[in-house]
Write a structure and sequence with these properties.
Chains A, B: Pathway: Carbohydrate biosynthesis; gluconeogenesis; Carbohydrate degradation; glycolysis; D-glyceraldehyde 3-phosphate and glycerone phosphate from D-glucose: step 2/4. Chains A, B: Keywords: Cytoplasm, Gluconeogenesis, Glycolysis, Isomerase. Chains A, B: GO terms for molecular function: carbohydrate derivative binding; glucose-6-phosphate isomerase activity; monosaccharide binding. Chains A, B: Its EC number is 5.3.1.9. The structure is a homodimer. With about 525 residues, the first copy, chain A, is an alpha/beta fold. The first copy, chain A, has 18 helices and 15 strands. Chain A has a 6-stranded mixed beta sheet, with helices on both faces. A 5-stranded parallel beta sheet of chain A has the order 6-5-7-8-9, with helices on both faces. Chain A has a two-stranded antiparallel sheet with strand order 3-4. Chains A and B meet through α3, α7, α8, α9 and α13 of A and α3, α7, α8, α9 and α13 of B.
Chain lengths: ~525, ~525
């Protein structure tokens, strides 16, 4: 497989020399109907309101073929060493519980069997907790699951937990309440612990390396609280499980109630479908719910192997995003779910995208000259409409938009006011925004004029369920992966976080004569 | 007072022609010690790690003087019509309960007396609820206050509520629990209502115009739930108050328990210190807490009148932000509070900044040619370090950073692990990040190389209290106001949100033959 820099490809040159199109001129009802691509879990990706003419679309297909983006995805699925920075395989697709590539062996084991084995452990354990056969140390059933983790051990699982709460409520799914502690700021743990009933809480400690500073610190804070509990017969170790790698110090900690494993081939931001998300979601909503999410993700993984960009939503989304960044020169992208349940999904995508592709070197560690990952931000609609949309509509920069919407709400508790359901109002707003951003509006008064030509895509479906949520997650994972291939960078390491860690240790050791650290530390410590 | 476009000023030309400085070269321990400016509420603004040489600083001062930024602020304080788009005064500074300018009369009343009168009403009512003399309809004391509002009626009050929760817990302040409903998505209201005990909940309905679609819809959803309550003797109207303008339909709604007023001179995103934030915060934490927040904001307002940019943190922050945007060409700014309590403060600033200055016309409604407001986003540290910081350190674009940190935590529940308190670890990380971003690190391996020169500022203080929070809020309000003056735009209207509202109504009316709306609506409705 050949890995070349984007600026060495014919396809990039052709796109740079191509005519730029106007969304306003391109957008027609026919285009809207024609330009939807099926994703997994019953979702669709629509790119009608993107500045992609038929000619540009052809060139994107050529670039995809020239760079063999699908071939590179298949290298991942086949267990090639696709994280060269850390010399690791990239196996998160295998955590969906379905083999997509050839058999992958590593560390002397069949990795598919390994992940399936962990899934089985998650199933048995979560069922035991949920049916009451595994109880707290004082004999009470667990009612709450509290995840302690940060970064990928927090953002993805938390976003998914919140995304399924309304679905579970609306479908009378038995639940354990989910709580999350992440920040090393002691106020984070204090605020959460304050609302917990320790006797009925099960903590899930998540750290792949078993050495994450924030997570170990918060574990100690929690253990201190548990140990000081005046409850008779209370045994702290019966209230905590670990999710970690087999080789980590946590794996050997016999005081834990149980341990579930992932490995070095699952990056934190890609770990939501591994035990990192699986334990907490299976405890909160049941293993079947988690399995349905995995199935949705798997469906999307399969669709992502398609070479025809008009049949591969993740690939099309990736190519369009690259076009907006490198040809149109737009520096940021907004994620705008019209679904309160997805309130923290943009924060997960912010990590997924910016940590994966916010790089200035290629796969070989050589500096590259073209822009890579954009800034990603977002809030749910309609809330954002009353906030930052002013800039999106009338600011001096163009920010491409990724809308997400569902026909039905989750709770089913909706009423008609002023002639329509709330859910209808929500989606009327979403519909209106896409058109407003694309077409703009002329006005004699420039203050009331909208230039339009603000590109957007829309992912839509019937309802946010475990399956559609899994597909949505995998769509963005695969999009980001394809963009990493286009930029010829390694989306699976994160060297950019190391320097801060080293310097923080130095500060904790008294700054070691570093006068700049000392001067700032004097303000704060 | 003269209002000219930025590109017509001598100061802008001088800055464009000036030498650009490197943060890496500028940053010294002496600079860090020297370049702090006192803000209100015991806070400080430090700009040592900004690419601002002494020469540039002099030019920024000249631009400030040439554009008479302080004079323009004083026009606001004196009650001039400073929102020309909507032909309104801009009076949020008066809501701090302290006159700063001359006496302002409008609508036939002294506005200072008007806001003070509302403050008195808030004091009396909140004390009545908190001491139990005002009870729910079944005779139980209120334990929960639930705000129904969107945009400025939600983001600011919610951010402030969350910011003070730990302070209130840590200081044993009597509390009513705060809840918030904002999104028209019916799942938002459903999720909140599910956790409420209706008998002990007081709803605060907030809409200046009294016509906000989301807010009225959510009121109706809540009222429907209240009316269907099987509790004997339950009277829904005794569980709701309004915050609105005197002229709105809500003001005349006799079914409400009480009504508190703001007016058209308080923009939504600037309304946190009016009754919009005052009612919910006084109910939740007591009027004295809210009064302390107002006092902190007032202190910062006073400091913001200083002409010397080295003594005016909001003005310096504004000028530096403009420099980064218009001279350095950076398209975004990240807000990074090292305080979990400020988890939603970046979302508030996102609205404040992007809705105020995301404009393409000047104060006279004429198109302008220079970039205005940047994209604003952010999450608390250290969480962000495990997420999007990779791009901030090693991405291909430079994103300026605004750090916020406090010496002490709020709860005071902290322990020593691995030789240090969690709060110390938190601030060691903050210290380390500023240095890492500024200085970078050389390495033979480009993947481990950090270019540095990532500019940052730091707002720091002893603790996040009502007073320091008020000052922090006012700092950013005044920063955004000064930047609006620099760009010669109107920071107080929001014409960009209108088109979407009009089109949403069209969709609800069946699309009225608009085939593009119809095509999207078919996916969603």
């Amino acid at each position: 497989m050949e890995y070349v820099n984007l600026d060495k490809t014919e396809g990039y040159k052709a796109l740079q020399e191509g005519k730029k199109s106007s969304v306003k001129e391109l957008l027609t009802p026919e285009r809207i109907k024609a330009q939807s691509i099926k994703l997994g879990g019953g979702l669709n990706y629509n790119w009608a309101a993107m500045p992609i003419s038929e000619e540009t679309e052809g060139k994107l297909q050529k670039l995809s073929d020239e760079m063999d983006l699908i071939g590179k995805y298949k290298e991942i699925l086949s267990g090639k060493m696709m994280n060269p920075g850390e010399k690791r395989l990239v196996l998160h697709h295998l955590t969906r519980g379905n083999v997509l590539g050839v058999k992958v062996e590593a560390d002397g084991e069949d990795k598919d069997e390994f992940y399936k084995g962990e899934l089985k452990k998650i199933k048995d354990f979560s069922e035991g907790v949920r049916n009451g056969s595994i109880k707290g140390s004082t004999g009470k059933e667990f009612t709450t699951v509290c995840q302690i983790g940060i970064g990928g051990s927090d953002l993805g699982p938390r976003a998914l937990y919140l995304a399924l709460k309304g679905w579970a409520d609306g479908n009378n799914v038995k639940q354990l309440k989910g709580e999350f502690i992440s920040n090393v700021d002691p106020d984070d743990a204090a605020a959460v612990i304050e609302r917990l009933d320790l006797e009925t809480t099960l903590f899930v400690l998540v750290s792949k390396s078993g050495t994450t500073q924030e997570t170990l610190t918060n574990r100690d804070l929690v253990l201190e609280t548990l140990k000081n509990s005046p409850i008779e017969g209370f045994v702290p170790s019966k209230h905590m499980v670990a999710v970690t790698s087999k080789t980590s110090p946590l794996a050997k900690d016999a005081s834990m109630l149980a341990a579930f494993f992932m490995d070095d081939y699952i990056g934190g931001r890609y770990s939501s479908t591994s035990a990192v998300g699986g334990v907490v979601l299976s405890l909160a909503y049941g293993y079947d719910t988690f399995a349905a999410l995995l199935q949705g993700a798997h469906e999307e993984d399969v669709l992502s192997t398609e070479k025809d960009i008009k049949k591969n939503g993740a690939l099309m989304d990736a190519l369009i995003g690259f076009y907006l960044r490198n040809i149109m020169g737009y520096p940021a992208t907004a994620i705008l779910p019209y679904s309160q349940a997805l309130s923290r999904f943009p924060a997960h995508l912010q990590q997924l995208d910016m940590e994966s592709n916010g790089k200035h070197v290629n796969r070989n560690g050589e500096k590259i000259s073209y822009p890579t990952g954009p800034v990603i931000f977002g809030e749910p609609g309609t809330n954002g409409q009353h906030s930052f949309y002013q800039l999106l509509h009338q600011g001096t920069d163009i920010i491409p938009l990724q809308f997400i919407g569902f026909r039905k709400c989750q709770y089913g508790k909706d009423i008609v006011t002023a002639g329509s359901y709330s859910q209808t109002k929500l989606n009327a707003n979403l519909t209106a925004q896409i058109a407003a951003f694309a077409r703009g509006k002329d006005d004699e008064n420039p203050n009331k004029e909208f230039d339009g030509n603000r590109p957007s895509s829309l992912i839509y479906g019937e309802e946010l369920t475990p399956a559609s949520l899994g597909a949505l997650l995998a769509h963005f994972e695969n999009k980001v992966m394809f963009q990493g291939f286009i930029w010829n960078l390694n989306s699976f390491d994160q060297e950019g976080v190391q320097l801060g860690k080293v310097l923080a240790k130095k500060v904790l050791a008294g700054c070691e004569g570093d006068e700049i650290l000392k001067a700032y530390a004097d303000f704060l410590i």
